[in-house]
């Protein structure tokens, strides 16, 4: 599990058919092969480690669900090690299981912040609510507003400086993971309602 608090930005060195090689520094401390690392919010397994780089495998499902296909060598990637049991929950519970890849529609300055408006895929609409949690490229954020087909977040200067969301422009692709608690609650009510409806006696 992760918290959505990015530890550093790595640099994509090469993107091969089934793996990524990423340069990094601080996050390599204490990381060994077979550990999980969030790469732009994607939970991936470390398969090889060098002095200042690591490699992770990528499956077809990972490619289909995420923005990895759009990346080029030299791109910055948000990195976070998995949460220790003794660690602080600074963000929110993030699994690293990307649900969709969506695009930035617009950005605008709002005081010290920068509002980012993002397309909202239909299958995620029940789980995105104003002031709720969302992870974008692995960054824990608060949803500001929600409309039928889009939502917005606001980026403080620290977030823009220390994550690749500072590069957000119209058309940029983002990995999205909605709040796992909200998904479970929605699923519970959905299945409970369906079950109760099926149990209702029919009348002649």
TrEMBL record:
InterPro entries, sorted: ATP_synth_asu-like_sf, Lumazine-bd, Lumazine-bd_dom, Riboflavin_synthase-like_b-brl
This protein's UniProt keywords: Repeat
PROSITE patterns membership: LUMAZINE_BIND
Gene3D superfamilies recorded: 2.40.30.20
Lumazine-binding domain ranges (all copies): 1-92, 93-189
SUPFAM superfamilies per record: Riboflavin synthase domain-like
EC number(s) on file: 2.5.1.9
Repeat region (Lumazine-binding), residues: 1-92, 93-189
Listed PANTHER family: RIBOFLAVIN SYNTHASE, RIBOFLAVIN SYNTHASE ALPHA CHAIN
Protein name per the record: Riboflavin synthase
